[in-house]
Amino acid sequence: MAALDLFGRRWALRILWELRAGPLGARALLARCEGLSSSVLYQRLRELVASGIIAPSADGYELTPLGTALRDALRPLDEWASVWAKEQERDDQQPTET
């Protein structure tokens, strides 16, 4: 499976994002991802485990060394997204011309 195909699947990046600070169980992931169904969660977890990005652990699921490298690779995108969000917020606060 190509990486972009995997990451483009609904909830895949969000699950990886939630695992960035350490292992989480399935219930914790469901609680953090409002709207995520348990069937989709378990499907994504299977795919991410099969890809070597996450692994089951005593505490649930955690990033593997490959997953940690991905987290580090996504850090510039996260920084860009923070700047973009601030600009969007600033633009939303600008008065509209009439």
UniProtKB/TrEMBL annotation:
The keyword DNA-binding applies. Keywords: DNA-binding, Transcription, Transcription regulation. It comes from the Bacteria. The keyword Transcription applies. Residues 1-89 form the HTH hxlR-type domain. InterPro entries: HTH_HxlR, WH-like_DNA-bd_sf, WH_DNA-bd_sf. One of its GO terms (molecular function) is DNA binding. This is Transcriptional regulator. It comes from Streptomyces aquilus. The lineage of its organism: Bacteria, Bacillati, Actinomycetota, Actinomycetes, Kitasatosporales.
